[in-house]
Every structure is written in structure tokens, then in C-alpha cells.
Specification:
Length: 275
């Protein structure tokens, strides 16, 4: 964002300096969020020494002058989902488990292009609600608040401005992405975020049961779409039952249609195996 704003306000930037602008903008942004941001020599090394540390420092001064920003917290940069997430977790008084879950869900969306259709505040609200559904907490009401939410879902809605209805579409999309791992055409799995949150430092939340979205109309919609939790349960039941391709699989479907509503998915599968 800083590089884009700089280039839109500056005309005399040659093609050979575009990489220098990009790496300098990265260094400026890192100073606003990282505890140990990179120095100019590090940035020069990343460019394979195409530029020197002195050139990076000179470009940093020029960039900050054009944008009139502080190097420690650039005010013109829009808030990210992490900024909203930190605020919501603090306001509802979430514990470490719920916080780690919410951070994992929120960070997992960064590599998904379709999540760009949701504003950062909505992604943060959906991540917090999904985390709290898995790790409920007592409601902590802010002392300056004039209203008193009755539950943590109402608390998130109160502080974020998003109700469950508005969050539903984004929450379902997050559930889908958390349940699946992106794989490139070459077969390489993009699971760095999942491996990061499998560490004990984050309570290994990525190894826990993936989130599901339910409750009211949202739950019915998820069932109609073939929700991930039910899909996984069905696959596990079929594997344990040793269904062979062909006859048994058809019997399960027929039993499910005949006994619809008698006992949920587990009953359908069990009935199919008995047939």
C-alpha cells in the first residue's frame, strides 16, 4: 500500500528503481508491526545486492517525505484484519485458547483470493465468533458500554457492528478454507500457517477440530450445502464400515432417503450397513 501511494504521487521513478521502492516500503511497514524489523542492509541482501543499504535508507527518507508518515506507525495505511481482531478479542475478554483459534482462522484467510471480497473488520468478527463457538467464555462487558450483551455472540455484534446474519457467509468461507489445504499445480502444499499454529506456543490449535458454522438459519444452510463436519463424519464412518464401491454405497444412500430425520447422518449410515 505504501509503495502504491508513493508511486501514485511520484513521477520520476525509473523502472530500475521499482524493486528498491518495493523493498523499502516493506521495511517501513515492518517497522510498524514487527518487534525486530529488518535494517537497510537486510533489504539490500534480499535484492541480491542490487542496491546498497545506503540506497535503501535514502529511498526510505524519500518515501516518508512524500507520504508524510511516521516510520513507526504509518497513519495512512488502512487497518488490517489483525487490528480489528486484537480489538474484538480484548473487548470480549477472550482467553488464550480462543485468541489462538481466532488468530489462526484470521491468518489462514490471507492466502485465499476469494476472501478479498470481505472487509477486514468482517473477517475479524467471523474469526472471533468461530473461535468463541469452539471455546466459549464468560461475557465481559466494557465499563464504558451503556448496553449489556447477554452472550458473547451479542458482545461481538455489539463491538463489531456485525450480527450473526451478516457474519454467516464469511464464517462459512473461513470454515471451508481451514478444513482444506491449498496445493499448487506442482503438488506442493501451502500449509505454513497450519504448521505454525500446530506449535505448542499457539496451543496446537490447528490440530484441533476444525470450526463449523451452525445456529438457526445458518445451520440449515450449511446442512443443505453438505457441511464439512458432516462430510468428514460420513467419510470416516464409511471407511470404518469397510464399504465396497458399488452395492453398499447405494444401500447407504437408499437407507438415508427412507430414514430421513430418524437419526441424523449417523443413523443413515448405520441403516445402510444393516441393509
Amino acid at each position: 500500500m505504501a509503495a502504491w501511494q508513493f508511486l501514485s504521487r511520484t513521477e520520476n521513478v525509473t523502472r530500475e528503481k521499482l524493486q528498491l521502492v518495493g523493498v523499502t516500503a516493506f521495511m517501513v511497514a515492518a517497522k510498524g508491526v514487527e518487534h525486530t524489523p529488518p535494517d537497510p542492509d537486510d533489504c539490500a541482501y534480499w535484492t541480491d545486492n542490487a542496491y546498497s543499504g545506503l540506497e535503501v535508507s535514502s529511498m526510505e527518507s524519500r518515501l516518508l517525505k512524500v507520504l508524510s508518515q511516521s516510520p513507526f506507525r504509518p497513519p495512512s495505511l488502512p487497518p488490517t484484519a489483525q487490528d480489528f481482531l486484537t480489538l474484538y478479542l480484548k473487548e470480549v475478554g477472550a482467553g488464550k485458547l480462543a485468541s489462538c483459534r481466532a488468530q489462526y482462522y484470521c491468518e489462514r484467510t490471507l492466502q485465499e483470493h476469494d476472501m478479498l471480497s470481505f472487509p477486514p473488520s468482517l473477517i475479524a468478527a467471523a474469526s472471533v465468533i468461530l473461535a468463541l463457538k469452539s471455546s466459549p467464555i464468560p461475557v465481559v462487558v466494557h465499563p464504558c458500554s451503556t448496553q449489556k450483551p447477554k452472550s458473547w455472540t451479542e458482545a461481538v455484534a455489539h463491538y463489531s457492528g456485525y450480527s450473526d446474519t451478516k457474519v454467516a457467509a464469511c464464517a462459512r468461507r473461513i470454515c471451508q478454507h481451514v478444513r482444506h489445504t491449498v496445493t499448487t499445480l506442482s503438488g506442493r502444499k501451502l500449509d505454513a500457517v497450519k504448521r505454525k499454529y500446530a506449535n505448542g506456543l499457539f496451543l496446537a490449535v490447528s490440530r484441533m477440530e476444525p470450526p463449523t458454522w451452525g445456529g438457526g438459519p445458518g445451520e440449515d444452510a450449511e446442512k443443505a450445502e453438505g457441511g464439512g463436519g458432516q462430510e468428514e463424519g460420513g467419510e470416516i464412518s464409511n471407511a470404518e464400515g469397510g464399504n465396497a464401491p458399488g452395492g453398499d454405497e447405494v444401500d447407504v444412500e437408499e437407507a438415508g432417503e427412507e430414514g430421513n430425520g430418524d437419526g441424523g447422518m449417523g443413523g443413515d449410515v448405520e441403516g445402510g450397513l444393516e441393509v
